[in-house]
Amino acid sequence: MAKYRWTASDMPSMVGRTVMITGANGGVGAATAAASARAGAHVVLAVRSVQRGREAARAMSGNTEVRELDLADLSSISSFAQSWDDPLDILINNAGVAGVHGAQTKDGFDLQFGTNHLGHFALTNLLLPHISDRVVTVASGAHKAGEIHFDDLALRQRKYGFAASYGQSKLANLLFSLELQRRLHQAGSNVRSLAAHPGYAATGLGTKGQPKVLVAAANLAGRIFAQTSEHGALPSLFAATQDLPGASYIGPDGRGELRGSPTLVGRSSSASDLTTARRLWEVSEELTGVCFGLDK
Predict the structure, then answer these.
(1) How far is CA 106 from CA 41, 103, 109, 119, in A?
(2) What is the CATH code of the structural domain delimited by 16-288?
């Protein structure tokens, strides 16, 4: 019997539901937004560039809304959250940056750690009182090479490398999703925290500012080995719509999790460390000034 392969056409109806997706103006985020809108959801594209967000939304069928959000700026996140006063069923923390050597957020954090983790940490907790169903945080197989350098989160005291910075941020995503689920359960909330990763999707992530020869090589590898953004969106869509336990991690089922149909996948031992997850949460609260969103 042929193996069943889950696709976006298998999504349940999303009519009457509101889904917010960060970084939804291109790549996997745009594909996630488009599929959610086709399924009937009211989709909020939370994006840094409103113009690009509107261009992406015009290419989608269904009910969409574009709102400005800069995850590399805590004041932008705070303003965004304060302006949101509607029910929110699903938040998909999709946005991410990669390969920007030594760049910083407006608050002085390493751009990758500050955007990929701290920005979503602050956004999720500020919006949590409005969320009724689940939070999906997009991680990466790169988390397996990551390590949380609590004494040097900006990686300024060691040789800065793309793998170290990006891996740290993606490991942080998984530890955040794990600790968020623990806190939600402890608070008696029905909201679930899950994580997903797109595998190897041809999105251009990590090529900005890189030498032309490396960009050309990445583009060639993408054409040969990568799956489309539409396929890369499937793990996020699966995590957002299927009946899964909290702290589940979804990724592609084939070729070393680089491509394939969405399924439950494993995480590294570092990404399963509850002590590290709790410590990272506490440090993130200190750095952002944002606490657990359901604290009374």
Answers:
(1) 33, 10, 8, 11
(2) 3.40.50.720
* 256-280 per-position pLDDT tens digit: 899 999 999 999 999 999 999 999 9
Give me the catalytic one of 4, 160, 166, 200.
166
* pLDDT tens, position by position, 36-49: 999 999 999 999 99
166 is catalytic: yes
- β-partners of residue 64 are 43
Domain boundaries, the chain: 16-288
